Amino acid sequence: MNVVEIDDRKAILRNCPQCNATAAHTLSNEAAKPWLLKKCQQCDFVYVHAAPVYEELLATHSWDKTAVQRQKDRKHRYPILHRISKSTRWRLHIFKRHTPVNFITQHITAGNVLDVGCGKGAQLNALPSQYTANGVEISQVEASFAMEVTKKRGGGSIIVAPAVDGLKQFPDNSMAAVIMRSYLEHEAQPKEVLIETARVLQPDGIVVIKVPNYGCFNRTVFGERWCGFRFPDHLNYFTPASLESMCTSAGLSIKRFKFLDKFPLSDNMWLIAGKA
Ligand SMILES: [Zn+2]
Q1: Do residues 194 and 250 touch, judged by C-beta distance below 8 A?
Q2: How far is the CA of 15 from the centre of ligand 1 (A)?
């Protein structure tokens, strides 16, 4: 493993997370420095070259905290952009009905649900009682809250581990649904996680994925000021095409990815996958 030090933090230099190629163009995104943003020369996937090692993520970072701090920074640095962004909040209503729970209740009647990167277990807590809540979470502190949720619900397990290791602890075909909400963009090994997800999924199961859309209109307009850029917590920058191809190459099939699920005026997109 190629470990380097950036900003006093240990990081691993990654190949393209989609096709494993090493040749990549460096995109001139000033906001990314020193965490270089790259575009794979072979498959066009956009990713941050160096990923902080998991231990670093735990020690120095809480995703929630950086999000709040970043919001404050943006307001201060770009007051006009911030106001435009605030005044076009109607964009968010396009996804109003999109929640993991809504998708799961539409597709699956009962069974095991696994939330990857479950945090304190808020998504799991929102599940109706016919579902058994399970989670993988890297932070012991966050996971302890999620364990309270499963205890209260009377079943399911929370594994404290990086996602790939955590997923390996669940048997083949054991999950009716897997949730990845605002998680996959943070993951240093997104394809490996999707491969493990395809393995644990039941033949009729679903995966609910929500990630920022790098191909969206706002990113083109705001450039490096786009709210989806967060360095180095967001490591993978999916377009609708690259999200779809990573899922299918990992052994998943696309069940739902409609125009409104990847609406270009929204910063995020939702994809429902199944077992191929
Ligand atoms: Zn590639």
Answers
A1: yes
A2: 8
